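Quick question, first post here. What does this chain look like in 3D?
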Amino acid sequence: MLSQKFNSDKPELVADQLTEKSANGVQWLDGEHADGRTKPGQLYVEVSGKKYILIGNESQLRAIGSNKSVTPRLYVYYRQGLVSGLLGGKPFYTPYYPGDADLGLDAVAAEGATTHLSGFQQKPDTVKGDNSYLYYKDNGKYKLADVDLTSDDIVTGLLKGVGGLLGTLLGGLTVGTGSLCGVNDQGLPDNETASLMKLKQEYGGLKYSSNANYIIFRDIDLSKDGVNSNKEDDLWTPLMVSGDIKGAKLADGQATLTDGNSILATGKPVISNVNVNQTEEMDGSKYIGIGFFGTITNEVNVNNIGVSAGTVSVSNLELQNVNVQNNTNKHKNTQTIISGLTSGLGWLVGGVVDLLVGVLTFGSVNLNL
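> Answer (accepted):
Ran it through. Tokens below.
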């Protein structure tokens, strides 16, 4: 049985959705907030050759240090012949995932960037879905996809799952495996300029690691109904970082986060309603201090042990309503703490405890909250 949104004149299952088209042709979807980004679904910026992952919601914030894969906006492209039955014949795109910084977004592109021959003219490939992203059906709207695009097994499994979901959505029609792709700079699904091969090159090594650099570009309220939250009332796990974390929110008429040479956005993002309750022995392999941050440390220069790899900077962030309860004074395996600091996480040259956020810092660190 076909979806009630299907009609024979317009076989796409995607309803007409409003887009805000900017002067440079970028199509922002209804409900999509650019917040200083220059292209839809954007997940990182480069400033003077340094890459910063953009953090726009609680799910991303919690992922810092997890080593999860940064996952862009994803569509699946079905070529001619991969669908049998009523809708067969013409290539189309199916929306799979909105991208990490846009979790909760429902609107999808109205058409693809690629075209097919229809009659005597080229027409844009259509988008078929159910007014949203298939990923939500099994995972909800606020869980990161964590798709390792370099893993053929993961990508193949994902495509098979999408084929099954889409077959059900289209009324039991047979659907092939298709190919994974992203969106172009205008926000349109594009199996050519944003093919899987190109996504692998762009995102293959991009992870929410402890030593990556981040820009928090939105306010994030960690309460259940808060802005950009994960819609859960869950306790905060202190972050353990050895890369830069900068706040950069649009303010005073600013339009973009960066010009490529410097960060232009000067607004200070607010992270609010942070609840930490430490009741068990502190695991030194994960964090040492208790607060929003657990540990901030600069990395060791692997070519010259004992020499700092550079200064770690945490700046331009505002923390509001931080509730820290530390009900333990014990550490689990203190040897792990020492070996971790001296071999992998940083060079122990001094320590400072910031009572406001409960952070323990080591090495060359610049805190400017």
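Residues 90 and 120 are 14 Å apart (CA to CA).
Residues 71-203 form one domain.
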